[in-house]
Design a protein that fits this description.
single chain, about 120 residues, mainly alpha, de novo design (two linked rop proteins)
């Protein structure tokens, strides 16, 4: 696996970037249904927002701003998990990748939740 595919587990910026890239790759493989089209649009937005808000958190001007941005990261990861669960997977390979992304979204939620608890 390349570095992009398997980011270091402690590098959250790379991990959130890889999550968004994998979500985009999944969307490209989906059946072209109305439901998948709408859910995919939402997934692309929320999955990218996880990493974008994490970058903003690291550039925050105050602890309060940092905590707010991390809470937004957690919210966007949770939203991504929701859209992933709604996506219709037509074959086992797509379903397996979708399920791995649901698991990754859950892990990101847990990480951001722990950061919030330790920061407040």
């Amino acid at each position: 696996m390349s570095k992009e595919e398997a980011p270091k587990r402690f590098d959250l910026e790379e991990r959130t970037f890889a999550f968004a890239k994998r979500a985009r790759a999944l969307v490209k493989t989906l059946a072209k249904t109305i439901g998948n089209a709408e859910d995919s649009r939402q997934l692309i937005r929320s999955s990218g927002s996880v990493g974008a808000n994490y970058i903003e958190a690291n550039e925050s001007l105050s602890k309060k701003d940092f905590v707010l941005r991390i809470k937004i990261c957690r919210k966007e990861a949770k939203e991504s998990r929701y859209w992933l669960r709604l996506i219709e997977a037509t074959d086992e390979t797509i379903a397996a990748e979708r399920d791995l992304l649901v698991q990754e979204a859950q892990e990101l939620m847990n990480i951001f939740g722990a950061i919030v608890r330790k920061s407040e």
